[in-house]
Amino acid sequence: MTLDLDGPEPLYAQIAAVLAARIADGTYPPRRRIPSEAAICGEFGVSRPTVRQAIQVLRDRGLAETVRGKGTYVV
């Protein structure tokens, strides 16, 4: 998946949409961890704050929850 760097949608929103689609199609099953922030940074070539914003969008939508010291899991 490539990001639209010149489009009007922020990068974090584009990443959140990709991750949400993966949750919806079962790539990331319920009660399982999504990839780490570092792994997502490497996949999309973005900074950690951008990934953190994307994960916050997933949490705000009720798709994921973060467990301190363990990672972010699909709800």
Strand count? 2
What count of helical segments does DSSP give?
Answer: 3
Structural class: mainly alpha
H/E series, N to C? HHHEE
Main β-sheet, in a few words?
2 strands, antiparallel
Low-confidence stretches: none
Biggest sheet strand order reads 1-2
Distance between the termini: 24 Å
Instruction: Please state the CA-atom Rg, rounded to the nearest Å.
Output: 12 Å
Q: What share of residues is helical? A: 40-55%
Strand proportion, as a percent range, falls in: 5-15%
* Overall pLDDT: 96
What oligomeric state do these chains adopt?
single chain
* Dominant shape: globular
Give a verbal description of the structure:
It is a single chain. This protein is mainly α and 75 residues long. The protein has helices spanning 11-24, 37-44, 48-60; strands at residues 64-67, 71-74. The chain has a two-stranded antiparallel ribbon with strand order 1-2. The chain is globular. The mean pLDDT is 96.
Which tags fit this structure?
75 residues; mainly alpha; 3 helices; 11% strand; globular
